[in-house]
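ingest -> validate -> predict -> emit
validate: passed (alphabet ok, no gaps, 491 aa)
predict: started
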Amino acid sequence: MRLLLLSAGLVVCPLLAISQQPVPATLSLADAIALARQHNPAYRQTIHDRSPAAWGVRNAWSSLWIPNLTASAGVTYAGPGEQNFLTSSFSQSVSTWSSNYTFLLDWTLNGQTLSQPGLKQAQLNAAQADVVGAETNLATAVTQQYLTVLQARDNAEVARQQLDHDEQFLKLAQARYEVGRASLIDVRQAQVARGAAEVSLLRARTAVQVEKLRLFQQIGVSAPVDLGTVQLTDTFSVQTPTWRLGDLLGMAEQQNPSLKALREREGAAGWGVKAASSSWGPSVALSAGWSGFTQKLSDINPTLGAIRQSAQTDSLACAYENTAWLNTGQTPLNCAVLANTAAQEQALRDQNSRYPFHFTPQPFQARLTVSIPLWGNFHQPLLVSQAKAQQQDLQESVRARALQVQTDVSQAYLTLETAFQTIAIQDTNRTAAREQLQLATERYRVGSGTFFELLDAQVAGLRAETDYINAVYDYHKAVAALEAAVGKPLR
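emit:
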């Protein structure tokens, strides 16, 4: 159990270390995007998909020029007994051990192997385009969330300023009440307004913390316990849009990452059609092999006994042939040679000691095979039809994505123009609201205005300040959305 926990710790701890990278105290947008490239899980998954595609290209080229090499070795045991093969029987009185090795070269050339390099390269290009698209989407998402944090921070600052104004209004109402120029209702209204401003400030500050948490989640790192220790440093200026819609559409047609990725996949599908069509052609297969074999008797005594018995039998037969009635007048045969089995016994022992690594090489074997498909039960037309259907589907996907890109660019461009014009309008409204609040404050101070007029001016001023901030950040988010739709930075 302890070993299991240790193994789990070795696996989990590096993953936790990746997600718990320290965040700098000051975070610019460029730093946030750089951290996201290193730690965002979804983006890293897309990067991981590129490695198998690269190995697929290597495998395709290697399979085209280099044969497969296989080495194998084995050990076999056969017990004593009788084996039957058709009408023949083979028996052995002792068990045997045998070992062998084989080296096999195998190389095949057909339409599939010829088309695989192009197909795998197209798939690698598609995987690389996916990585570029994922990087663009990641940068857009981080930028949008970075702007959202800044927007929440500015809204919190407006809420803090509103609380300061409400505290001043409360002091003014109390002073007027003490000199008898205002009623207690004005004081209570000022207290209620200050309480509402305090609640708004609390909510605005909480919104800043929540948006920071979402930013860290988007980056792919754990947020610090004290979110206030990390400050966003970038500021963004509002500039008059000078881009033309036609130029933006042309750039998006060439550089939009998702559109480029689909086009690469369409190209890969075209190679898939070529690979499927090549299944009609011939196939050449070449194989060559080297092998060796050795064997050992588990007990050589029965075999030695058989050798000796055979030698004794031959010696007796020789002695019988040397008798006078069979060998009259001739030189007697040397029967001692037949009785000497030392050489045969030593040869058996030497052969038995060769197990398991002293192999006897077997003859070299090679084979060349040429095959031509004649009838495959419509398998080849099925493969071609499926490949063409996939290619046609991707062609339609490319066309649909191109239309979507045109719509996204046009929509982002129109939204940007609207946001830029809205900033000017909201700035005018903010200036008017500030003047209205100043006039209402002076009127209430001199006694010519009511506290309700002051509250109305205060609400209008708060709304104008908030609307202006939202308009500014809507502009920056519209620029980010336009850059994402085009597929390249515009600023």
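Confidence is low (pLDDT under 50) at residues 10-19.
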